[in-house]
Specification:
By secondary structure, this protein is α/β, with parallel strands linked by helices. The protein is built from 13 helices and twelve strands. Strands 2-8-7-6-5-3-4 form a seven-stranded mixed beta sheet, sandwiched between helices. The chain has a five-stranded mixed beta sheet with strand order 1-11-12-10-9, with helices on one face.
Length: 407
């Protein structure tokens, strides 16, 4: 074992954009025997989750819980509102918008994608023109990803609703908040979102395996118009259960519920406004460091952020570029030598292309604070030096100055 490899011992730091770091109170809450699933504390605990989940989403309407990852929430949202032959419009700014569109196509739904690439947010003028042209209202829903985890672009969901309303269009607005809920500001009812999907393993700081679909009365009416919905994916009983098992379509995800209860306690104990502010402040420190690293004589040889406009950047994930294959080399070196794992590049280059090795991502979502972010940045700078990757000076000082500023 080399001297540097020995430095990887100790608790690893998983700095990928989900699953995120799991807080000790969540782990401790889950470390227990299986509970009774027919009576007792698990039932009251589950009931207590519903108002806190709604508060997190900013809605007074409904939430359905699924034992699934985010892809399951995608399917549930589509299955409860649309039927084969319906059409959806998908403004895309990254791989996960395309993925949701592919899910819709697999269900027999006609998909129209407005692809704005992987480095730009939605062009709402184009969206408005397409909606205005749909005189027959063939488009039944607009599927929008709030934060695309692949590109780290944060889109303006309230502005998208404004364009739908300005066009006088009845399409449902459906939002993917898998990467953003609990990290970036999101207000479902205030922004006019009809359906929102998310999952537990990112801003909710709970091991992967549970997802959620929030929906309002407009979406409930769309569900009522459908002749059939798969018994498992039907959100009706899940959102208004008469028996406990109906929350989950069967046996509850028992230990996830205990963990989720602890995670929601942490979020609401800190205060949602403060959670959003913390994520913004930490993200700004990361961006300051990345800007400093990118200040070299030939910028094409150095690090750069995927999203150039700070106003369009997620506060939960940052996608970055290095000349291939330096990004992959950096990730491997950090994991093997410092116990620090960065996220792979996703959707920014074909996986069989050499350029795939020129992208990586930083997850800074959920249970993260100032010293963790400074440790992340210090680790990256160590890897840049160890691998002789060109980079500008002063990154850690720049990040420290941001963190030292009070909000």
């Amino acid at each position: 074992m080399s001297a540097t490899t020995e430095l990887a011992a100790g608790r690893p730091y998983l700095a990928i954009p989900g699953p995120s770091v799991i807080p000790d109170p969540v782990l401790q809450a889950m470390h227990r025997p299986s509970p009774n699933i027919y009576a007792g504390e698990l039932l009251s605990l589950t009931d207590s989750l519903i108002p806190d989940l709604k508060a997190l989403a900013g809605t007074q309407h409904f939430v359905a819980i699924y034992i699934s990852n985010g892809h399951g929430a995608w399917e549930a949202a589509l299955s409860n509102t649309l039927q084969p032959g319906d059409k959806v419009l998908v403004p895309a700014s990254g791989r996960f918008a395309i993925g949701w569109a592919e899910m819709a196509e697999a269900l027999g739904i006609e998909v129209e994608i407005l692809d704005f690439g992987t480095a730009a947010a939605w062009d709402l003028t184009q969206v408005a023109e397409r909606l205005a042209a749909d005189k027959a209202h063939e488009i039944k829903a607009v599927l929008g990803v709030h934060v695309d985890t692949s590109s780290s672009i944060r889109n303006d969901m309230a502005a998208l609703r404004a364009e739908i309303d300005a066009a006088g269009h009845p399409a449902l607005l459906m939002a993917d908040c898998i990467a953003s809920l609990g990290c970036d500001r999101f207000e479902m009812d205030a922004w006019g979102v009809d359906v929102m999907v998310t999952a537990c393993q990112k801003g909710l700081m709970t091991p992967a395996g549970v997802s959620f679909v929030f929906f309002n009365d407009n979406a409930a009416e769309a569900r009522a118009r459908l002749s059939r919905v798969s018994r498992y994916w039907d959100w009706t009983a899940r959102a208004t259960p008469q028996e406990f098992y109906q929350y989950f379509g069967g046996t509850a995800p028992t230990h996830h519920l205990y963990g989720l209860r602890a995670a929601l306690d942490l979020i609401h104990g800190e205060g949602l406004e403060q959670v959003w502010a913390r994520h913004q402040h930490l993200a700004q420190a990361i961006w300051a460091a990345c800007d400093a690293w990118g200040q070299i004589e030939n910028p094409q040889l150095g690090l750069r952020m995927n999203v150039s406009d700070p106003a369009l950047r997620s506060h939960a994930v940052t996608a970055l570029h290095l000349p291939a294959p330096r990004a992959t080399e950096l990730r491997h070196w950090l994991e093997e030598n410092l116990g620090l794992t960065l996220g792979i590049g996703l959707g920014l280059a074909p996986p069989d292309s050499p350029e795939w090795h020129g992208h990586f991502r930083l997850g800074h979502m959920g249970h993260v604070n100032g010293h963790m972010i400074m440790g992340l940045l210090g680790g990256i700078e160590t890897g840049l030096k160890a691998l002789d990757i060109p980079h500008g000076p002063g990154a850690l000082s720049a990040a420290a100055r941001v963190l030292a500023q009070s909000e």
